[in-house]
Each structure stands twice: as C-alpha cells, then as structure tokens.
Amino acid sequence: MSALSALSSGETKGETFVINVGPQHPATHGVLRLKMTMDGEYITRAEPVCGYIHRMHEKMGENRTWAQFLPNTGRIDYLAAMAYSHAYVGAVERAAGIAAPPRAEYIRVITSELNRISSHLVWFGAFLLDLGGFTPLLYAFDDREKILDILEALTGSRLTYSYYRFGGVCNDVDDDFIRGTREFVAFMRPRMKMYHSLVTDNIILRKRLIGIGVISAEMCRQYGATGPVIRGSGVGYDVRKSEPYSVYRDLDFDVPVYPEGDCMARYLVRMEEMVQSLRIIEQALDKLPAGPVMASGVPRTLKPPAGDCCFAVEAARGRLLVRIVSDNKEMPYRVRLRTPSFCNLSLYEEASQGMMLPDALALLGSLDLVIPDIDR
Amino acid sequence: MKALLKEIGSGFHSLVTGMRITLGQFFKPQVTVHYPHETLKMPVRFRGHIELVRDPQTGKAICFACKACEKACPSDCIIVEGVKREGERRKSVTEFKLDFTKCSLCGSCVEACKSEAIRFSKDYNLASVSKEEFIMDLFKRLESEQPKPPQAQPEQSKEAA
Amino acid sequence: MSIIEPFRLLLFLVGIMAFVGLNAAYLVWVERKGAARFQRRPGPTEVGYGGLLQPIADGIKLLSKQLHVPPGADGVLFRAAPLLVMIPAMIGLAVVPFSESLVARDTNVGLLMIFAFGSINVMAIMLSGWSSRNKYAIISAARIVSQDVAYEIPMLLVVVTMLMATGTMNLNEIVQQQAGWFWRWNIFRLDVNPLMPLTFIIFFVCMLAETNRAPFDMAEAESELVAGAFTEYAGMGFGVFFIAEYANIILGCAFATILFLGGWQSPFGVWSGVFWFLLKMYVLVFTVIWVRWTFPRTQFYNLLNLSWKLLIPISLSTLILTAVVMKVLK
Ligand code: SF4
Ligand code: SF4
Asked: What totals of helices (H) and strands (E) does chain A contain, helices first?
C-alpha cells in the first residue's frame, strides 16, 4: 500500500498513462466514459465524460403540451420510470390544483414501489456482474421478470409505462394485479434471504466491498448526492420521509441507514430498501380504498395557471425534483429535471482518487448510475 | 489469531453455502421460454403498434378522421386524412399513415380517440431491413385484410377495452 | 528403447492432441450448459441436438476470422504466444497415467516435469499481454505474473508434502500406492498428515489460481480489463488461448486426481481402470465450473493476501507437520 500513500501525499513516481473506461466498456453499463489517469493500477484522476446520449428532455418539454411530455418521463431513468412520471404528474397537479383520488394515490405508491424493487434488482445483478459474479444477475432478472409481468398486465408496457395521468392513473387495478402483487411479496421475502446467503455473506464479496470506496456524509452533501448513496453514508435523508408526498405519510416503513459510507453500506441500504418496499406494498394493498382512479373535471387540454411549481420524489437512485414553470399556455414554459444520478456521479472524481482500478469500478457500480438519467 | 481463525471458518462456510445454493438451483427446472418455439400470450393491455378498428356493422373503419389522435401524438407520427362523402353523416378516413420509426408506443393516440377507432395490435414480431416498411398506411392495411366474421368482432373489442 | 517406442510416442502425441482438442471443445459446451443450468437457462440449444454441434460451429467461426496483429505490436511474440501456451498442457498430459498402462511416458520425474513446464504457461500469457501493445493487456500481464508466482509457492509446498508422503516422483507409482478401498487415497491418509483434506483444498485453490479461473480470473476480468491479455487477439489466436485454458484445467484436475484421489484406482479396490480416472477428473472439472458460476471475482490484493498470508503459512506448516509425523512414526 505504499504506492497509495505516495499518491495521497501528492507525489507520483514514474509515468502515468490514460485508459478509457467507456464509452464502450463492460463496466459502464451504457455510454458513460471515464477518462482514467493511472499510475500502475492506481487511479490518480478519473474524469467522467458524459453527454453521449443527451436527448434534451428539458427542451422537449418546452415544445409539447403538458400531457405530451408524459411519455418522456418514462425514458429518463428507464429502470424507475414510475417515479419520474410521479414527479412530473405531481408537479403539474400541484400547479393546476388537481387532487388525485385516494385510490389512485395508493395505486401510484404500489406501482412506484414495485418499480423501485425491479430497479434495485437490476442494480443488484449489474453490480455483481461488475464484481465478476454472473449468476446472481440471472436470478435477479428472473425475479424482476415477475414484477415486469405484473406491471405489463396493468399498464401495457414493461419499462416505459406512461401510466400516471394528471389527476390519477389511466386504468384501474384488477384482482389479478392485487393477487399477483401479493404473491410476489410472499415470493420475494425468502428470495431476499437466499440472496443474503448466496451473495451478502460471501467472504469474497465482503472482502471486496467492506472499507472500499468510502464516501463521507460531508462529500455527499457537497455534491448533492442523495438516495442510497447518502443513506449509506449515515444520513437518513429520504424524500418519502422528509417531505412526504402521495400517501407515504400513512404508511409505516423504515429508512435504512448505514454509517460506514463504503460500498458494503450502499449495498446493504439497497437490499434493505427492497424489503421495506415490500412492506409498503403490503400495507398499501391492505389499505387500498375503493373509488375512482381519475379525478373528475380534469380539462382535456390542460393550462395550469402561471407560476412556478416543484415536486420531489424519492426515485430509486435518490431525490428527483421536477420543476415546472407555466405561463398559462398549452405548453410548459420550462421543465427542469434534477436527476439523482448526475449528482451521484459528480462525486466520483473525488471519491475514486488513489483507488485501484477494480475497486474504483466497484465504487462506480455501488453508485448505481443509469446513464440516460445523467444525460437526460 | 482467534479472530483470524473465526474469519477463515465463517468465510469457508459462506463459500460452501453459496455453492450449495447454486447446486440447488442447478436441479430446478429452467425458467426460460424458448422464444421462437414457444411464445407468451400478450396481456390484454399490451401496447403494440396501433391499428384501425373495423366497425362490426358496416365492416368499414370506425375512424372518421377527426385528427384528435394526430394532435395528441407527442412524436408527430400520425397523419390522418379523410373525405366527407355524399350522403354520409361523418367523414370517412382515406389515409392513416403511421410512422412507426418515430412512434414511442406511448398510447396517447388510443386514449385520445373517443370513438375507439384505433387499438393496439398484439403484434410484437416487428423486424425489417428497410425503414420504409415501418411507415405504414393503416387504412390500406385494413382494406387489404379480409373482413373478419362479424361475430368475432365484439369479443375482440372487449379484449382491447 | 525398443523399435516400437517412437511409434508409440507418436500415437500418444496424436491421442493427447485429440484428447485436448475434443475436451476443450466439449468442455466449452459443458461449461455453457452447466452455467445455464446454474442460472436456470437452457444454454445452447439450436445447433445440433442440445447444442452439441455448437463448439464445432464456434470453431468454424473462429477459423474464418482474420488473425489481426495490431499496429505497433511485436508481431513475432504476438504470434508465438498462442503456440507457447499450448505446450505445457501437452507435455504435462504426456506423463499422466490415465490407467496402469495408458501413459505416454512413464518416467520417474513425472511430477517434476509437470511443474517445470507448467511455468511456461505464465510466460505465454504474459507475452501475449506484453506484445499486444494494449494498456488493458499490459495491466493484465502484470497481474498474471504476480498472481502465478504467488500461487506457485503454496502449490509446490503442497506437492513437496505429497512427495514426502509418497516417496516417489513417478506418477504411476503414486497411484499404485493408493490401491484398495477409497480410504487408501492420499486425501484420506491422515496417518502421515492429519491435515490432508486441507492440503487438498489448498491444492485445488492454487490450481484455480494457476489456471486463471474464476474467482481468480484477474487476467481476463472482463468488467475491468475487457478481455485482459487477450483483448487484441481475434479468431483462432483467441481460440487457442481458450483451448489452452481448458487444457490446463484438464491437466490440473488430472493431476489432483492422481495425487489425492487415487488416479485410476476404483474406490472399492476392484475394477480399477481408466473409467475411474476420467470420472474423478470430470467431477473435479465440474467443480471448477461450479465454483466459477457461484462466486464473484476476488480483488487483486485479496488474492495476494490469501496466498501469502494464508495459503503459504498453512502449507508450510503442513509440510513441517508431515515431516514431524513421519519422523516420529518411523
Ligand atoms: S383514430 Fe380516432 S382520433 Fe384518430 S382520427 Fe380516427 S376517430 Fe379521430
Ligand atoms: S403510440 Fe404514441 S407515439 Fe405512437 S402513434 Fe400513438 S401517440 Fe404517437
């Protein structure tokens, strides 16, 4: 470890060289490029280069009607599309003064949490793949498939749901959905135990994650990192608790927090979150009220009164904020998206300094980045 | 020393547990659907590309070219044209172009159509080597198809609802 | 040496090459099928019944591809590396007794031969990484060397322990000593060393590391180094490395079978023969595959820590223990 101490004291012996991790690289899961200046296997500087799939979602928002932007929200973070629709729909409802009926709010919570589990399952598999374990990926995808089937039967699509509407959701849940979701909850609990004994307890994995990639709470604050990243650094910040939206106030769940700040802490936070999501789903199904799923009197062409409105949700990767500015026209004046992955990535350069390449990739995996969410 | 031995012990145990789990999975039935040989049934709400719906009485397209879907589409991929024929109450559609290369399968058009004149097809095997094939004229498509026997129709529309 | 000897050797050479080739091809199939089963997938199904012709299709595909030497690479070494990598496995198998009489060269230094040539393997992979003028490949080459050096030591210590227990370097003799019921196998010979099963595990771990198999596949580490030392190889150049990997697994498992599991001896003392040898060897090969599809990859310093801080001290102490036990018992 002497090379490491030499690095942190600022003196690098010998030459450095640059390797590109990405935009085409097995570890970046998308078109993210990391320009890494290396001293041997140690990283002196890792500079993220993003923008390869920038699609100007914010600009697109200014060029279509309020409702027409809805499908876009599912395509920002394609793994957790529900939360994104939720944030946008919530912002517009707040601006236009529409209140979704309670049944719709419960359905939103159930589908969002299902979506969070499916997103975390993808992260789990992909993270293990980064660490060289292939098999858990397939198990996780098998479980995720069950969620996708449930959501596909409900919404008609497997990833880009476009399910929420201003004032509710576009169609009601049926008994099949409720039964399927309950079955899934019952199925998933023992599966989590299996994952813990197959993966979490594994000594190889523990050696690779414990104490690796420590991010301090202070660094998270400085860069605005949220979600499991900041909760893995000992800060219990969760939008569902700190600014409760929808019906989260009526539901009983814990926010898992681990103070270590290393990759293992972030790993455990997400694993624990899946269990908590199962709890939320179960309660929401029990409490699901009867009634309509759409508010009445929502105009066909919406023109929210002029003003400025924000709505934050806890997406699978952290705090997602949608800010809309309306000038009482058919189209938004401005749609601003504050996406969690972008902030979570921004601390990478500082956090990865002096790490070894495989550890740095473990850190990258533990941040759970979705590249379209960074570039949007 | 004791901690080290304990770590070795628990570490070894964790490895054996992991291997036991994967071996357990080894003997379980596989979960894959062998795609070209087996296919899944698409759920009722599956959003494929859109298609025009035939009126069970007249056997013609229900669509009367009101262009609500054209306006609703966020990707500008629908072009509807219609003419008002002599003696008919409403316009009838003459051209319904769908540029599937731009379609994001969002479903706004189906939702916008109040007369349920379009629905999602369950066709997911869409592959082609030329882009032109995805610029489809849904009206021509409907015309060229054999009209289905009338009794099959109500069942179909129930499924799409 | 009789007049027939050269022909016999030639026959064995052809035989071993066919054995290695077929095994490599079909172990790829077994690995893919096995991995699929562990992950509850079907694996290859389309080419031939149950995908049985898949390795042949893959081979044809690899053969039809261009052998590209990247600009700036050392052409000679780049081409020589795939040739070099096959040698140790071939030579190693020449001294392996498949059954009492089925052995190409029944020499008294069989054990030594395998280890002497085994180290060429490291050099070949290092050369391939070094000569391809690719940063990933060079990192991988550096990893390979330190990894293989680190694991050669505990492996040799284990083998020396075995050598003390058996008193011979002739592999056939080692097998013959283990005749009888299965508790006569070296792995259960607790009278010379009460830690014998542990020694076997150390040997197995070292073998995994030496053959660069998961969880020690630092050289390929596809999520870090793309394909490591083999990044620049295309077509059959890559294919040869692939075959060599399986050939080395075969050799390692065969060797473990001979040293610890009684080679071609049957577990019941009767009907010994090549069948038992192959059965034991393939069970070990299956375990290698099983391990790969269960565990994540180790990190590089953990890998070295494991060797230097754990395996070497343990294997050294078993060596001393064996020496003491044998001295006392004598
Ligand atoms: S499909 Fe429906 S919305 Fe579109 S033009 Fe025809 S009737 Fe109008
Ligand atoms: S599904 Fe969406 S994108 Fe496709 S044609 Fe309909 S409205 Fe347009």
From this structure: 16, 8
